[in-house]
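**Polypeptide and fold**
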Amino acid sequence: MISAEKIKNLRIKTGAGMMDCKKALQEVNGDLESAVDWLRKKGISTAQKKADRSASDGLITVAKENNLACIVEINSETDFVARNEDFQNFCNLVSKTILSNKIDNIDDLMKTNLESSQSSVSESLTELLAKIGENILIKRLDFIESDKNIFTQKYIHNSVNENSGKIGVLLSIRYDNSNEKLDSFTKNLAMHIAAMSPKSIDVNDLDKELVEREKNIFQDQEKKSNKPDEIKEKIINGKLNKFFSEVCLLKQDFVMENKTKVKDYINTFEKENNCNIEIQDYFIYKVGETS
């Protein structure tokens, strides 16, 4: 009988999956060092070394099912692996695991069995890492569970399949009168978000530290000026308003009609379709971004 403690120690030592460690120990009658050699001969223990390498490519996967939706970034070292069928299948299974178990954080995800598997996501990840030969990292995820009158929309840019690509957007809106145009309307909004990368829905949602940093920069720029203080203040406020129009979704120029603000695009849709629309939340992921 191989103890769980021995399996754990072998996993820590080699980075191999639980089932591989158990099998290795069984093959060598429980001897830890011999089990390490057994795994090395099988090419499995290379996983731990690979896990130290930088992973900045990969895929964004966005999935929807009924009132559940998620977006997840899984990184690889190269685009070559991102186009590998096994890697793409793993991304798809991870997204299904998130939805099936309503997971909203990576720690819980790693401990949960991968969809259609008896192995945890962590174990399956280690096995895939050993098989493919590159470091693979589940970097981040977000999960949405919607109630009635919440519509979720997904968008994939530079897609490699229906659910995965290099840029992903997950958008949720509240509406009070559904119609057949809602899907194309929200798809346009999601495409805009992918193109313009807003930092918030509106000014009040913007990170206060970011606003203060920008304001300090504008104030420093005006310090050298000989203009009266009230003029300086107007200039600073003007620069702030321009900044808001660049980073706040509702204030941005709509990419498909650049003389129209996103807020005006939404208002027009509301009037034409006798409904009220409110953006609840959105997530935009770009492969490899640091922030």
